User: Fold these one by one.
Assistant:
Number 1:
Amino acid sequence: MIAINTVILIAIFAIGYMFFIIRKTARRQLDIYDLVMLSMVAIVPITFVAFPRFAFWLAGLAGVEFPFVVMFGLLFAILFIFIHRLTVKIHRLELDSRLLVQELSLLRQITEQEEINKTIDTQNGLIN
């Protein structure tokens, strides 16, 4: 059986962490998908502590002796999925940034060419 101190400690962490990421989501610093993924960091440990029979059943199903091995495996899988999603987002942002720089360069070139044409037209108007 798990000590009550452990349950209390993990429950305090889970509640505090959930409050923190829900507040970040409410302030639009995280999106809903990030909230779900990051909340798993709190939900998985509290599930393993609150339901030890389920944890041992899951460990037996996975073929390992200790439930914490399954718990950390799940947490690693969740974090790898989250990191993959962030990598995809960063790649998309790099592509968007590159496209914006190219468009800005084209607009700058067009603007400079129009100013040169205006200057030439003005000088031609003064000469004629």
Note: The chain has one domain: 4-127.
Number 2:
Amino acid sequence: MRQNDTLAKRIKSLMNEKGVMQKQLAEELGVSEQTVTNWMRHGIFPKKNIGKLAQYFDVDVDYILCKQQRRKKIKGVDASVETFISLLSEIEYDVYPCLRSEGTLTYRIYTPDEKLVNISAEEFNTIKADTLHYIGYILHQIGTE
């Protein structure tokens, strides 16, 4: 069985469990119903939508990608990380926490041109702190002018 067939079956199974139809899923993801139909028929899902599917179905990205059987979504991602991920999504970066088989937390980041970058939680937190510090500095400068 091809990987794409398995991926389509996994999504179809999650849709059945949640009791949603392709039209509802399309609305949740902000795509057309025909797009979802094509995904399901051909088993090809754009990388930027895999994370949205995982969030919608409240499962880990690697579960959606059929790389693991564990369905659990990563817990314990603090509010500042969630806020930073939201900020990144505004500039078209999709960020998804992933728990590796050895138990380490990493982050998958899809850039606007759909390149994938995997970084450790430590690297991600450093980037987050530096970015939020810089944003605070810029806001302070704007406020003092």
Note: The radius of gyration is 17 Å.
